[in-house]
Amino acid sequence: MDRAGGEPSRVALPPRTAPVRFAAFTLDLDGCTLSRADCGDVPLTHKEFVLLREFVRHPGRVLSRDYLLDALAGKRADPFDRSIDVLVGRLRRKIEPDAKRPTLIVTAAGEGYKFAAPIEVHAESAAPAPAASAANKQATPRLSIVVLPFANLTGDPEQEHFVDGVTESLTTDLSRIRGAYVVARNTAFTFKGKPVDVKTIGRELNVRYVLEGSVQRSAARMRVSVQLIDAETGNHLWAERFDKPLADLFDMQDEIVARLAGALSAELAAAEARRAELSPTPDSMDLYFQGLAWLNKGVIPDNLAHARGFFDRALAADPGNVDALIGSARADSVEGALSYVPDSMAAFAAAEAKLTKALSAVPDHARAHMALGFVHIWTRRAALGIAECEHALELDRNLAGAHSLMGNAKIFTGRAEETEAHSDEALRLSPRDSHAHVWMTTAGIAKLHLGSYEQAIMWFRRAIEANRNYPLPNFMLGTALAQLGRLDEARSAVKAGLALAPTYAVSRVRAGWTAMSDNSTFLAQAEPILEAMRKAGVPEG
Questions:
Q1: Which of 8, 201, 480, 525 is the most buried (most CB within 10 A)?
Q2: Rounded CA gap, 292 and 272, in Å?
Q3: For 106-126, what is the HEC assignment?
Q4: Cα separation of 381 and 402, whole Å?
Q5: Residue 139 has what pLDDT?
C-alpha cells in the first residue's frame, strides 16, 4: 500500500483552471468551491477545502495525520491531536453517501486516511499563449499569501529557533482567516536563506501577496519588522515595526504573532477591496470585500449604509456567501447597539437570524460566533454572549475584539469594574486594530458607569484620536464633561457627535439600554448618565 508520511508524490493535475471530478462532485481549484451534479454548491470551510485538495492530489495514497496537519497548519501533530479526525468527519458528512460507512475517504487503521475514489481531470481546450497567461493571472486565489522565513538579524544563532517559530506560528494563524490560502510552512521554508524576487515567488506559488520579516535584538529589546508586498507588482502595501522589551520568548512569540495576524487580516481585506474597485465585473467576493472596507472605515450611518449595500449585492450574486451574510448581520447589530435606528431590538433580531443561518452552514466560523456573542450581550443574554466570545477565541485566538465584547457584557451585568482589563487585553493583542477605538470607548463607558469621569474622558479622547469617524465617544465625552460641570466643552463634543450621527437621541439610548439589560446595578448607573447627556445637549428624541 502506498503511504505518505512526509511529502508524497502528487498526481499530475492539469493547469489550475481545469476542474477535478470524482463521484458526483466537481472540485474547482481556482474558485475553491465544490459542487454536486444533483444539488449544486456544497459549502466548505477553508480547512475542509484544503483537506479535500490534498486528498485529490494524492488519490489512492495513505496520508498520515502528521502530513495532513502540516498541509493545513504548517506544523506536526502531537500524539493526542485529533483535529484531523474531526475535520475528516465533517468532510465525510458533506460528500459521503453514508458518513458512517465511508467509501470516498477511507481510514487506514493506525496510519491515516486514503482517498479511494477515482478522479477525472479535464484540461481546458488549448488557447493562444497570451490568453492562457491572462487566465492564469486571474486564477490566483484571493487572500493568497506566503509567509517567507523571517530573517534572523540578532547576530545570535541560538535565536534561530525563536525567529523560525514566529514564522511558523504566523503561518498557522493566518490560515485561520476565512477564505485565505496560505502556503504551507514546508514550502515556504525552501526559500530560507536564499535571495528572493517576490514576483518570481508569486508566479511559482500562485499567490497574490508575500510577507517578509526580520527580527533584531539589542541588549534588552527585540525589534520585529515586517512588510506586505503585492506579488504581481512588487509594490509594498503595508509595513510595521515594533520593539518589545525582552521577556519570556514564548510569551513574546505569542504576542508578536497575535499583533501581526490581526493587522494583516485587515490589511489583506483592504487590499482585496482595492482590487475589487478596479474590476469591471465584480463577483460576490469582490463585493463582500468592498463592504468590509466600508465597515472598517468607521461605523457612522453613511458607512454602514454603503457596507450594507455591498453585502446585499454580494448576496444577490451568491446567496451562499456566508461572509457577506455575516457582514450584513454586523451592520444590523451596530445600528442597534448605537441607537441609529428607531427599533434596536428589530435590528438585533434581523442580525441573529442571519447569523443563525450562517452558522448552520459553517459551524466553526469564528467571526460569526463573535458576532452572535455581540447580539446576545446586547439583548439581555450576557452569559450566552460571553460563552460565544470564548468559543470564537478557541477557534481563532487572535479575535481581539472578543475580549472587548466580554468587557461590554460586564458593564451590562453591573460589573463595570472588570471591563478595563478586557479592553486592555484586546489592545495588547492588536494595539493598532481598525476597531481599537471601539475598545477604548468601551473602557471609557465602564469608567463613566463607575463615576470615574476624568479616566473616562481620557479613554474617550484616545478613541476620538484613533478614529474621528466614530460618533459614540463624542457623545460619551460630552456626558463625562457634563458630569464635571464643563458644559461648554460638553456641548462642543456632542455637536461633533451629531455631525456624524444626527439621529442620536436620549430616548433611543434609554430604550436601547433598557432592552439590553435588566440588571439593577446597570440601570441605576445609567440614570445619571442619561441626565448628563441632556445637559450636554443630546436631543431628547
A1: 480
A2: 10
A3: EEECCCEEEECCCEEECCCCC
A4: 15
A5: 62
Q: Are 155 and 217 in contact (CB under 8 A)?
A: yes
Q: Rounded to an integer, what distance in angstroms lies between the CA atom of residue 1 and that of residue 535? A: 80
CA dist., res. 392 & res. 412, Å (int) = 20
Ranges of each domain in the chain: 3-120, 140-262
pLDDT category at 278 given cuts 50, 70, 90 is: confident
Q: Which of 69, 430, 68 is nearest to 262 (CA)?
A: 430
- For residue 162, give the C-alpha cell: 525563536
Instruction: Find where cell 509595513 sits.
Output: 239
172 has pLDDT over 90: no
Over 50: is that where the pLDDT of 359 sits?
A: yes
Q: What is the pTM of this model?
A: 0.66
Q: According to the model, what pLDDT value does residue 5 have?
A: 47
Q: What CATH number labels 3-120? A: 1.10.10.10
**Largest alpha-carbon pair distance within the chain?**
81
463 membership: H or E segment, kind and range: helix 453-466
Helical pair 400-412 and 382-395, crossing angle rounded to 10 deg: 170
Nearby residues of 381 by Cβ (< 8 Å), 6 or more positions away: none
Q: What is the dihedral of CA 409, 413, 415, 416, to 10 degrees?
A: 60
CATH class given for the domain over 140-262? alpha beta
Assigned C-alpha cell, 98: 453514508
State how far the Cα of 137 lies from the Cα of 30, in Å rounded to an integer: 11
CA distances from 260 to 199, 398, 431, 466 (A): 23, 9, 10, 19
Return d(Cα 87, Cα 429) in angstroms, integer. 28
How large is the average pLDDT for residues 222-243?
88
Instruction: Give the bridge partners for 379, in sequence order.
Output: none
The answer to whether residue 138 scores a pLDDT higher than 60 is: no
Q: What is the pLDDT of residues 475-517, one digit of tens each?
A: 999 999 999 999 999 999 999 999 999 999 999 999 989 988 9
Q: What local confidence, expressed as pLDDT, does residue 248 receive?
A: 62
Alpha helices in 62-103 (DSSP H): 65-73, 83-95
Written as nine digits, the cell of 204 is 511559482
In the predicted model, is pLDDT for residue 180 greater than 60? yes
